[in-house]
């Protein structure tokens, strides 16, 4: 009223009308901004969804990370609780409550790198090491002057070094290390039976060649440091031996230097990226091998080189998805394009499963047990079951977790049964960790032979000097 | 006057908000008493608009942030189900249950009146074994001039309570693989409980016996705990010292016979010769082992007789000490209690001195200057809780592992970037004559 008297009723109404219009406009503007923010977001001011999540997180204090599919679960503590002296333990959600508890201990708090980081010289092209041209001569001289380290431990049996490895840091998946442990036990068993030496690598020799390429510098270093080794057998950590009785036919490869599982047509004619498999292969210790390693390495250095090489490989090879260059595709490409240089000494083996893709094998184990026997090494009883794509040490694999882990258990037990039968035991089933006796103890143990003859097999007999 | 004529028009045109639609504006007097009907209508309109606005708001919000379970986007739901499924699988894997025995009958309690045995009594093992070796010359008990040794170690078949435990088991196996490759020793890694009765630390007994009987070509069986690491890659056990002995174990004779201490010997690392005497000792050792009332009762006897032993069920170490103490005359002449080198080295006194050792000494000594074995008793990384702070244990295990690994990597020209670092650095440049360094640094060539 006071205002009306000041300004005049007419003007007052106009002002009121303007105000009303203004109000409507502002409300519509706000609504528009809200809707737009909800749909396209507003940069660092985020979206309403993020607001909601932030608020919820703040209120509820959740610690679970939703992006991780494989989460750490709170371990069952009932059984172990009785070993603790005091019972006033929290639910285990914070490790500071008890310094003796392994629950949720982060290993990264104790790891420490000293010394400078080695930086490669970007101006120099990548090389695995100083070029050596006379390795065959050097090696044969050394072998002559060291007769106590022969490169053949039997008439047809070369000295073999099985090389495998994993990361020096704990797996991201909580059960990954357990499966690595089972895998190494499986390899220890096969190697003990067959007189093969083992090297388990846990060191990254060359930061440039990380990931699947890490095997190249390692293989080269081992070949040069172990001249007594005739064949180096690389095997992935996700490959398991499933035929403990099968001995590799060494004499078949006396004229070859590189043995991989694969098919000639698929590599040379089709250029198929899975025409061969570099998860399990044999490499002879000779100059030719050093040369092929040098020819293989250039696509490996991480970063731009690997990315670009990946594009070339996807373009050139059949069926290859788009991702950075991997050692297997690079080998297919190398062999397909330089067949005349290397092909004569490469043997692509497919008469037995030097590498056996797990997908087509693991469901048939019961059928194999019923119909066949160990020692065949092929589709009837595979030498190696290779869990490509499962990646049990990482967070995500290409296959469902349940199938991968359960099948790895089955494959492990399938192989382990052949070891346990030497001692009169077997797993209760392919899925079970428990064992049961299948042969009674006797007071004459030396009369009893194990069914497969693995206790004292021919391929382990020492060379008798005549 | 003009005002009055103006007002209705104004009222009509300014009625953009439906609340002000009126008829017969002439009768309408702003600010004055409003008729009831109009008021109701106005209220109605207000309510309608409020509801409409509210509706629009909900729609917009639902579209942007979702309303939890009432229709959120699909991805969240799928993620959640994957997470639940994965957790279920991991829980199943880590549990102790057996997927194929849903209705396992309860284990029959062993009859305490019947003495437990590891197997049928074998009487003439030395003779049988000698015959076998003679008829199988391609499996001799000596290789390259050294007696054939088999290293036995193991861990439970299920995953550790914590992932870090499995990781250190893996590192310990690598450590043993390295030592055994350098020294030509075979490894058996046991992950099976051969005998339900003798589970836990007793599980080694049936396995040792089984291996002895199945592998007559093996001269010595060396048991090593999974928490023991080799820290001297060059040192070799001086087996020639033990030609008249059948059991080599680390300990202190005075602690054993005078003080009767429960830690007089350590069964985390010991060697058994493959012979009749060893089978007899194993048979005499086993009776305190069967789990249940026998083990508990035996534990009480051991606590009563051994100095410093806490009260818990019988363990293999205390039982062996008690056996050797009480039947001294029968066994002790063939037992070598070794303490001139660390066949077992208690970790607490050793791990902090690694830097000092690197500075002053060299590998190959095996004793307190450069311990052969560093044994992490009490750390129990595979369980949930240990007897010591976790950080100290894991830090020390990492240091011991790297300390040993440096000795292996020396041949290849690398070394860890610090005893706590998983990364390595080059210590030697690449060369065109690698065999010079092989001659210099290969441990095997230095020994033989």
Structure, described:
Chain B: It is an enzyme of class 2 (transferase). Chain B: It is found in: Golgi apparatus membrane. Chain B: Its EC number is 2.4.2.39. Chain B: GO terms for molecular function: hexosyltransferase activity; xyloglucan 6-xylosyltransferase activity. The complex is a heterodimer of chains A (466) and B (448). By secondary structure, chain A is an alpha/beta fold. Chain A has 14 helices and 10 strands. In chain A, helix 6 runs parallel beside helix 14. The N and C termini of chain A lie far apart (129 Å). The relative contact order of chain A is 0.10. Chain B has 448 residues and is α/β, with parallel strands linked by helices. Helices cover 42% and strands 11% of the residues of chain B. The relative contact order of chain B is 0.09. At the A-B interface, helix 2, helix 3, helix 4, helix 5 and helix 6 of A face helix 1, helix 2, helix 3, helix 4 and helix 5 of B.
Keywords:
heterodimer, A: 466 residues, alpha/beta, six-stranded mixed β-sheet, two-stranded antiparallel sheet, 14 helices, 36% helix, 10% strand, B: 448 residues, 15 helices, 11% strand, disordered N terminus
Gap between N and C termini of chain B: 127 Å
Measured by residues with Cβ under 8 Å of the partner chain's Cβ, the largest interface is: A-B, 123 and 122 residues
- For the secondary structure, the number of strands of chain A is 10
Question: On the 0-100 scale, what is the average pLDDT of chain B?
Answer: 85
By secondary-structure content and strand pairing, the structural class of chain A works out as alpha/beta
Element-by-element helix/strand order of chain B: HHHHEEEHEHEEEHEHHHHEHEHEEHH
**How much of the residues of chain B is beta strand, in percent?**
5-15%
Total strand count of chain B, please?
A: 12
Strand order of the largest sheet of chain A: 2-1-3-6-5-7
Please give the count of helices of chain A: 14
Radius of gyration of chain A: 32 Å
Strand order of the largest sheet of chain B: 4-3-5-8-7-9
Computed over alpha carbons, the radius of gyration of chain B is 39 Å
- End-to-end separation of chain A in angstroms reads 129 Å
Largest sheet features of chain A: 6 strands, mixed
- Helical percent range of chain B? 40-55%
Q: Tell me the structural class of chain B.
A: alpha/beta
Main sheet: strands, sense, barrel of chain B = 6 strands, mixed
Percent range for helical residues of chain A? 25-40%
